[in-house]
Amino acid sequence: MKGVAQRWTMRFTMNVLLCLSAQVGVAQQMPTPSLKVEDRPAPYVIQAGDQLDIKFFYNSELNEQITVRPDGHISLQLVNDIQAAGLTPEQLTQSLVGIYSKELRKPEIAVIVRSFSSQRVWVDGEVGKPGVVNLTGRTTVLQAVSEAGGLKETARAHEVVIIRRNAESRPVALTLDLTKPIKGADRGEDLLLMPYDVIFVPRSRIANVNRWMDLYIRKNIPITFGYLTGF
Among 27, 143, 178, 182, whose CB has the most other CB atoms within 10 angstroms? Predict the structure, then answer.
């Protein structure tokens, strides 16, 4: 009976592995969503906590240095509270020109973002320390991954996914092959990051197989693989 049970276990394990391999093959053939070139340079959107300079070219007495409140509004002279968060600097400029046209003759206004409150990205998956990475200056994907503890041995570095919102706030995805810039072959794969980007480093397929084996085979079948290799 013991021999029958062992042979049955071996057959079951091999059938499971064959099924898993077939699923991996299908996954390799599935197309990966891509990020169009025109979607990448989305303009900066003002956030709560940002510090703004509001400059009036011909009415300097109205110049303001102001912080966007938690409710997303700013308070300026001569006008009521104005929504700033969620707008680009250009959109806020156009809005202010329209509002101040009622008070001033041909207002010339510039909106300058002095400091940014929400310059951060998220790194998840097979990295040493998943979590938030603050952007300080120009930061690339590899630099953010390094800040998050670097790639694990189980990382699928040639299929790293970056998720970004385009100008219409629609999430789009791009698959990067980080093995190329790591080897110095193609720095174009190491993109510059934008605020709120999400970087996901998936597990390698062999790591997924090993994890599945550990969860569903080794912990549920009371026969070691060292013993099974005797067949």
Answer: 178
Quickly tell me which residue has 């510090």 as its tokens: 51
**Of 203, 132, 126, 121, the residue nearest 165 (C-alpha):** 121
Considering 98, 115, 132, which residue would you say is the last residue of a domain? 115
CATH number of the domain at 8, please: 3.10.560.10
Q: How many angstroms separate the CA atoms of 9 and 121, rounded?
A: 46
- The beta-strand segments (E) located in the chain are 51-56, 64-67, 73-74, 82-83, 109-115, 120-125, 131-134, 160-165, 171-176, 198-201
Asked whether residue 201 falls in the same domain as residue 124, the answer is yes
Please identify which residue in the block is written with the tokens 């057959």.
Answer: 11
Residue 132 forms part of a structural domain = yes
- Cβ burial, residue 132 (10 Å; 0-12/13-18/19+): exposed
Report how many domains make up the chain. 2
pLDDT in the model for residue 196:
82
Q: Hunting for tokens 């300080």 — which residue is that? A: 136
> What is the C-alpha to C-alpha distance for residues 226 and 218, in angstroms, rounded to an integer?
11
**Could you give the CA distance from residue 126 to residue 179 in angstroms, rounded to a whole number?**
15
Is 163 a residue whose pLDDT tops 60?
yes
Q: What is the pLDDT of residues 133-157, one digit of tens each?
A: 988 778 899 999 999 999 999 899 9
Q: Do 155 and 122 lie in a common domain? A: yes
Residues 36 and 55 in one domain: no
Residue range of the domain that includes 153? 2-42+118-218
